[in-house]
Specification:
mainly beta, Ubiquitin-like (UB roll), about 35% strand, globular, 5-stranded mixed beta sheet, about 10% helix
Length: about 70
């Protein structure tokens, strides 16, 4: 769990502790990642990029795999 007022964003073994209250999209950008390249999951459920983060959230990002 993050500190009060923060949440944790996780992707491929990396973690970012960010202020709660921002959108998932903004958090992904703040972490330096491409929004189009990841899917956010909270509590085992897929969430949308416009979801507002809450204190104590742990949001995992899953890489989008595409073929061609």
């Amino acid at each position: 769990m993050g500190e009060r007022g923060t949440f944790v964003l996780k992707f491929r073994g990396q973690e970012w502790t960010l202020p709660a209250g921002m959108t998932v999209r903004d958090a992904i950008k703040k972490a330096g990642l491409q929004v189009e390249g990841v899917l956010p999951v909270r509590d085992g459920k897929l969430i949308t990029e416009d979801t507002i983060t809450r204190p104590g959230d742990e949001i995992k990002l899953v890489a989008v795999v595409s073929g061609g």
